[in-house]
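hey so i finally got around to running the thing on that chain from the lab meeting. sorry it took forever, my laptop kept dying and i had to restart like 3 times. anyway pasting the input first so we r on the same page abt which one it is
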Amino acid sequence: MNIKKTLAVIWGLSVLISTQAFAAQEHIVNAEVRAFNPDIIYIQSGDTVRFINMASHDSVSVEGLIPEGAEHWQSGIGNNITLKLDVEGVYAYACVPHIGFGMFGVIVVGEPVGIDAAMEYARANLKGPYRRLIGKLLKVQRAAKKG
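ok and heres what got predicted. didnt touch it at all, straight out
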């Protein structure tokens, strides 16, 4: 291979690597007084979600309402956290100190695979203030059906 071809291959590989490295996006979820803003977000696999203004809040994934193979998370109260989500599907989360106020959120990674199963699980298993998550999951389910 001559020098021009070698340089072209090296340049092509560097463009491909840098494009992939910068393709992931960061999404911000702002903890407000008694709500996450936005409370439903759509991201791509490999993107990150950064929770900010968490002074009196936490972010905890809801058991049974994250995709199979995804890792549960639980931040401490007052800890801004960043999550990198790779498993496609629907992730529900709560602010435990403020669940009574309905402080829940949903992250959809890629396609909302498993949303119907998540709705069934939520209706059968969520109790008390956690049932407020059903409304957010229903919005995701309706959006998925509109396609």
